[in-house]
Fold these 2 entries.
Entry 1:
Amino acid sequence: MDTFEALETLKTPGSPLDSVLMKGLLEGFMDGILIFTHQGNLVHTNSNAEQIFEKLTQDKKQYQVIDRELRRVYQAVIDSGNLYPEQDITIESELNHSGQNVLRIRARWLKLEAYEQPLVLIILEDQTNSIQSLVTTESQKYGLTPREAEIWLLRRENRSYKEIAAELVISLNTVKKHVKNIRSKLKFYKFQQDLLAS
């Protein structure tokens, strides 16, 4: 199974995964979706998976790291099926780059009536996109200013105050002031929710 070659040549018209409804469902996921047969043939991928690969495999070394990890996770699912045929086990893995989680991989069996053997479903979560989406939602929810949203994004990425100050070219005290304001807005939002709940 060479994931990247399979992505380039994947064409399965007429397969059960080729229906309009199924394609619509798979394309609706924010995460990347890869579906393999028990033999390791890629039968479907959504556009988000292709975008994740394109973004994260700019150099050959990263390409090899991701491909090796996908193979390992795929094989772990196959092995789990042989060892524990009655249990539905999910295999998880995370790839890091420069101390940050870049990609979360989750894999499990996918049983469809149209296939004799179960398929292997691999879900790719681009951690950077997930954090950005979360921060966008939180910024609106808590009423953060654009600068506070920038700082909150970097904090959500576990950046230190010094790293944030250096990246945004602002003083350490300015970062601290913004974080204090953000935390106040979060507390106020929670207070409002508690009042509405009582």
Entry 2:
Amino acid sequence: MCLLSLKKALIVATLFGGRETMTLACARAFLGTAILAVATAAGPGAAEAKGFKVLYSFAGGPGDGANPTHALLRDKDGNLYGTTDFGGTSGYGTVFKLAPDGTESILLNFDGADGGGNPLGGLYMDKKGALYGSTVIGGTNGGGVIFKLSHGKETEYPLYHLTGTEPMGSLIAGANGVLYGTAWNDGLDYAGTVTELELKSGLVRPLYFFTNYNDGFRPLDGLIADKHGILYGTTSEGGTSENGTVFKCTPMGIETDLYNFTGGSDGGDPAGALVSDSGGNLYGTTNLGGANSSGVVFKLAPDGTETVLHDFAGGKDGANPAAGLVRDAKGNLYGTTQFGGHDNAGVVFRLAPNGKETILEAFKGSASPDGALIDDGQGHLFGTTLTGGTSNNGMVFEIDE
């Protein structure tokens, strides 16, 4: 199994066709093969260590979703919301809700047609409880949709039908009713864009076009914003060494590369979103690079100085993180890796401010956590795995610190 993020299966699939655009059949076939390879490499299930519990195992098929890859969303009542890439009545993924008692409800089954399909991104919830997200295929133009799911209803409202933009990251809210996200295969030379959506008009437009390898290439995950509305994110490729970048982008579309990864000891191929602290420092992960070529956790100071906080070593340690981090009030960083651990099925880790790493969970069998964690602020972490669980279709888990 390749060490790249399984999210990047969609990008690798483009190479099979020898072109920079992705066919629906190629993407679904490649990602499905990648998932099957992980699932058959080891049996179902995960180690239920102290503080770890499986909240829900996806069954797949027409009756349930399968293969979640992005972070969950949690409301004030403790309900969890998320997306699955596959499964559901048409096999094109679902939006689901998981109640605190473990009861799952399918809020939406994607049809792969006008309603979109394969939601390879997380969700955003507005103040009224409506959910927003995006899909990479379907819609009237075939390029996916940005959708709205009203609170308490199971009727999807496509806000915008995309044309070849293929968004990958979750949406975040900006000022004046604007949502921001990224599209990995849009724009000039299909290098990707930062995009914005005006909710009132439904207008989607590129805020910034990534231009070439020196500028960064193909953002794979969502953005974060500071109090001034400045957006921060990563590109998985490109930059001066072609190993990815950290960038910022103003609401006016002015982009600046803050750091260019070399792919050496500093890491390379960042695939996850960033997290920040009150001092303006940015924290993230790279899928590759580092002392052991298994990825790193890094800190980027406001002056552009990068510090590697942890080099993943594989084995009992994790390897190849494909998602961003979550940071608690004490400065601890939490994250996941796709590989490493007892069965090379991935781990959940904590990195203390002094640099000490603690493995909170090493998955057994087939798991591969591919999405970021969320923290309820009370010592409970929630996440998903791409595969594993009782049917090898992924699961939702909780870790109590």
